[in-house]
User: What shape does this take?
Amino acid sequence: MPLTRRTAVLAAAATLAALAVMVAPLVLYGADPETWRYSARYTARFSFGLLLIVLVAPARMPRFDTTATRDAFLAFAAAHVVHLGALAAYRILTNQPPDAAALAVGGLAYGFLAYVAIALLLGRPPGLTLSISVHYLVIVAIVTYATRLPKDETRLIGIFGLAACVTALALRHAGR
Assistant: This one.
């Protein structure tokens, strides 16, 4: 499955959109560590929306074929790399390295993301590895949003994030 112009356009558009999401708070409020935290948070939410498309669209949209799935995953991957940059900037500025569990879970998630993106860029068809990777990434999102529930100030986003994950999984796996 050769790469198309659409593939490059969608990946570039996702990258530019994620960069805009990252830069907007920095321009509006200054590049202090707290603003970098918001940039990391907002880029994560942006790429999360793209991940939900990769999860749900192939099962619910008959015309969303393997090429569209590939393009959507590569757009998600590009946007999520921007999130990694914003998160790394925040961690560096605050001198807060991630704990071992976050590093292991997140590292595996980015490992899956990189492996699938490289395979797709090399023209390999998305298959079981893509499905496993997308499901693992959604599980990471579920765990991340679940950690928001105990705190009053983040509970609402945790509820919405968990609801989005559960709904997307149900749409992906419910009968047509």
Notes: The mean pLDDT is 94. The chain is about 80% helix and 0% strand.
